[in-house]
Amino acid sequence: MAISRLRLGFRIGFAAVGTLVGLSAVICWIQVFKSYDTAAFGGVSGLTAAVALVVHILYARDQWQTWYGWLRGLMLSGCFVQLAGVCGFVTYLVLGITNHHVLKPDSYYLTCVWCFLTWKWGFLLFLYSRMYRREFDPTYQRMAEPADVKV
């Protein structure tokens, strides 16, 4: 089940914007606000978006047919990024509530937002890797085809 070129172009554009925003967050939060934890999660978010961008570009070039074994590792890394995002989200939310932080550039709440974005890109990396792996996996393709049943 191939996806349309318009949908693939939208996914590539969305991942490119996520990469640029995530990497610019690293520069912004380190240079301007001196908030290294927010910069770290922004960097992980941008890096995960960049990996998702590469996954889409390789799909557009039809190169996953020979390298579809890598998609399993990308699925696993997407799961770990999701786990880091959820743990960071809960941790920084609890820290923000217990320390009575207000919403300012170096608060725990903005770090919580970047943890959510990290979780989102980890989920999308897992989802797209799984979808493309199912498309190129020969055993899954045999299972999806209807069998010749004689009655």
From TrEMBL:
The keyword Transit peptide does not apply. It is found in: Cytoplasmic vesicle, Phagosome membrane; Endosome membrane; Lysosome membrane. It is a multi-pass membrane protein. It catalyses: heme b(in) = heme b(out). The keyword Transmembrane applies. GO terms for molecular function: heme binding; heme transmembrane transporter activity. GO terms for cellular component: endosome membrane; lysosomal membrane; phagocytic vesicle membrane; plasma membrane. Keywords: Endosome, Lysosome, Membrane, Transmembrane, Transmembrane helix, Transport. The chain crosses the membrane at residues 12-33, 39-59, 71-95, 107-128. Belongs to the HRG family. This is Heme transporter HRG1-like. It comes from Branchiostoma belcheri. The gene is LOC109474310.
